[in-house]
């Protein structure tokens, strides 16, 4: 299983950024995909989760309305669109996969998002 994130970078407060995560080595359409983030000195928190079909989504606290998760099973890719970014959104963002009904969670290497003027 391999998860490769891309799209991180530096953005000004109020700006937008889109992240992508490409999965390989597994049947992507059978996995629930999630984005987590971890700021320095803090725990890794759920940002958003999307069902295997893409028909259901869930967002962590303070994300809903600003972030949008989506997926394209034909491209083995999950996306995270982030709008109205705040300095407190600064973190390493991780892509994660877990098979439907399973317990083992796979992680990508993470991509840094920095919100600063």
Explain what the structure shows.
The strands form two sheets. Strands 2, 4, 5, 6, 9, 10 and 11 form a seven-stranded mixed sheet that branches. This protein has a four-stranded antiparallel sheet with strand order 1-3-8-7, with no helix packed on it. It has strands spanning 2-6, 9-11, 17-24, 31-38, 44-50, 57-59, 67-72, 77-82, 91-99, 105-107, 111-115. The protein is mainly β and 117 residues long. It contains no helices and eleven strands.
Task: Describe what is shown at a glance.
The protein is built from no helices and 11 strands.
Strand content: over 45%
Instruction: Report on the biggest sheet.
Output: 7 strands, mixed
Rg over C-alpha atoms, rounded to the nearest angstrom: 13 Å
* Helix amount: under 10%
Distance between the termini: 37 Å
Number of helices: 0
User: How does the helix and strand content classify structurally?
Assistant: mainly beta
Average predicted local confidence, pLDDT: 95
Pick out the low-confidence regions: none
Number of strands: 11
Q: What is the global morphology?
A: globular
